[in-house]
Amino acid sequence: MKVANVILGGYVNGYSIIQELYENNISDIYVIDIKKDISFYSNKINNYFIIKKDPNYILAIVNLLKKKYDLLIMYPNQDIYLEYLSILYNRINKFCFISFNPRNVVNYQDKMIQYKFCEKLGVPYPKTIHITRSSDLRKILYFLFPVLIKPTKRDNLKGDIFRSLKLDNRADFQKKQKVLNNYISKGFNFIASEIIPGSGSNVYAYVGYRNSEGRILGEWTGKKLSQFPDDFGVFSSASNQAPQIILEQGRRLIHGMDLWGINEPEFKFDKRDDKYKLTEINLRPMMWHRVGALAGVPLNYVQYLDAIESKIPSFSDEKNSIFHYVYLAHEMINLFRRKSYFKTFYYNIFSENKNYFAALEMRDLKPFLFCFLGILHRYKRYLKRNKNAFS
What we know:
The protein is an alpha/beta fold. It contains eleven helices and 16 strands.
């Protein structure tokens, strides 16, 4: 059987999948994305395709590849591609292996639905409300400040919309209320949550691969060491360490929600009541999923074996030897832009004997160089976008 591995999303998430497959002697790798990103520069792939924001472009590529291959294994690593594949599912699932649950993958991206499952399954989560109308904003005044506001789904991250907005006090809420009302009038929905105190180093993750029969075929846990561009941002550095309760709560969620494929419930430790509270669930490989492969649990390789119906080894999550996984581009910008960051920077990069750097392959250097140079432009755009939104 001739198999093609189709990665949807070419950023760090996608390149980590390329690394993992290549390390396990898997070839015939293709990348699809709406823009040319770091994975497109890899010498490990067969080809790449740049598409427009329309699932029919993916359908055209799939129909092209199926002329050459018996099976296409799909590796979506961005939310938009989960939605596109969900739209195409009934048209391509006979010759494409798509690991997610088509009945819930789109709806369960909504954080309010995720928190409802937390309530049902006994998993802690922060006090949260759903904001769909302007009148809902007044409910925030009954929260303990500071409060964090986020779009309900990643698909809302378009135009000048923000990824997250921190309201430090009631006066800050009054200042931002007009901007929020404007977004609501345009059809955006939000969730508002009381902020769990503590830095980004209090964030932990469970990552597991659960097949369509309900069996977990591989799992690992880890923690973030820092985030970018602030404590409510995205991964900057991470580690393979986490307490046992993260494993237990993560399993409870992916079983209770009937999630398939690779899923990542993320938790933050609240020292006020000593609980690990769910912040969000990524229903696909996130930016730092490479930690799992480095710790001995290659979940994308597990997906490959599941797709071809091959025997899956028992992978062990390494906890005896601590290592750090660093996205150097983010760490460098944090160092220059965040006050008193040097101690965190030094700890993330120099405190352990074993460190790994995201996208760095000595025999495949172009992705790392593109990633490091391109992040400066991305960060500039991020600042401009937020300045326009809140000026």
